[in-house]
Design goal:
Elements lengths: L2 H8 L8 E4 L2 E4 L10 H5 L2 E9 L2 E2 L2 H14 L8 H14 L5 E8 L16 E7 L6 H6 L1 E5 L20 H12 L4 E5 L5 E4 L3 E6 L2 E4 L10 H9 L6 E4 L4 H5 L3 E6 L3 E8 L2 E2 L7 H16 L2 E2 L1
Parallel strand pairs: 7-8, 7-14, 11-12
Antiparallel strand pairs: 1-2, 1-6, 3-4, 3-5, 4-16, 5-6, 8-9, 10-11, 10-13, 13-14, 14-15
Helix pairs in contact: 1-4
The chain binds 4'-deoxy-4'-aminopyridoxal-5'-phosphate.
The site of 4'-deoxy-4'-aminopyridoxal-5'-phosphate has 14 residues, from α7 and β13.
């Protein structure tokens, strides 16, 4: 945390506009603007994280920052701050807004440069952090379950753009989301080029068959989701065996239960895929146990704000 940012935090008024962390300072959201020459905007050149705070604690902050710095390294982007400084900036942003439960969007772009792709044109990255509320799906989706469809847009091949780089290039996922919407579903299941289930547009995917909990490996094009990791950690205590393996939609159609995981969505049951009911067509019992276990974990785990 820079001195400027510290000073701004301490002089903040009680309510008012949301404060955004912007390159070392906390500024009102009206002043939190990026240049039209920012390569994050011009080319999607940058990386980001979506993080949650629950009950005054930031959930799995270290894991999120590890992934952010891995993504940045993979695109040769020097963030210009240490992970400890970044953690401090996240916490300051939450404190400045008086938030104990929040969604945090942390973005690092290549920064401002001339027109032209060359990242060397951008001497300094742009770093901003938004802490706000998010509700990705309406409440009834959690109680009644989601309908999702497989789409023809395939997940990026790791030989073109590795899906484990959490970059600002989301057009692949957006195209899939559009297709899902056009087909009447809220979410899309994306397959790899080889036809294996990869993930959804912003969530990982799991299925349950008996007491086996299965999710695609990163090699299928699945992001190593932080929520996915938490669910894999929680499963053994619930008597579930976990497995990462390649599978096709057949396994989903014939599964007992299917659910999605993500920082914003948390754990959400899927009850219909490609117009086929999954299991008995209602959120499954194991999924409901995992949702409860996940909520309990988020209430007690994390870095204190
Ligand atoms: N897959 C994709 C493509 C994502 O963008 C995300 C994050 N929104 C996830 C999976 C879920 O990851 P996490 O649990 O870390 O939010």
């Amino acid at each position: 945390m820079t001195e400027t940012a510290q000073k701004k935090v301490s002089t903040l008024p009680g309510g008012g506009s949301l404060r955004i962390y912007m390159n070392g300072a906390l500024v009102p959201k009206e002043q939190a603007v990026v240049s039209v020459f920012d390569h994050g905007l011009l080319y999607g050149d940058g990386v980001f994280e979506g993080i949650r705070a629950y009950n005054g604690r930031v959930f799995r902050l270290k894991e999120h920052l590890d992934r952010l710095y891995r993504s940045a390294r993979a695109i040769v982007l020097d963030i210009g701050m240490t992970p400890a400084e970044m953690a401090g900036a996240v916490l300051e942003t939450l404190r400045a807004n008086g938030l104990r439960d929040a969604y945090i969007r942390l973005v690092v772009t290549r920064g401002v440069g001339d027109l032209g792709l060359d990242p060397k044109k951008c001497p300094q990255p742009t770093v901003f952090i938004i802490a706000d509320k998010i509700a990705l799906y309406p409440k009834e989706c959690y109680t009644q379950g989601l309908e999702v469809n497989t789409v023809s847009t395939r997940r990026n091949s790791s030989q073109a753009l590795n899906p484990n780089i959490k970059s600002l290039n989301y057009l692949n996922n957006i195209l899939a989301k559009i297709e899902a919407g056009l087909s009447g579903a809220r979410e899309a299941i994306m397959l790899s080029l080889e036809g294996y289930v990869a993930e959804c547009t912003g969530d990982n995917l799991f299925y349950l068959k008996g007491n086996r909990l299965v999710t695609p490996p990163p090699s299928a094009g699945a992001l190593e989701g932080i929520t996915r990791g938490a669910v894999l950690d929680l499963a053994p205590a619930l008597g579930l065996m976990t497995e990462e393996k390649l599978f096709t939609p057949f396994e989903l159609y014939t599964a007992d239960e299917v659910f999605l995981t993500g920082t914003a969505a948390e754990v959400i049951p899927v009850v219909k895929i490609d117009a086929r009911s999954i299991g008995d067509g209602k959120p499954g019992a194991q999924t409901r146990r995992l949702i409860t276990a996940f909520h309990t974990l988020t209430q007690r785990d994390g870095v204190e704000i």
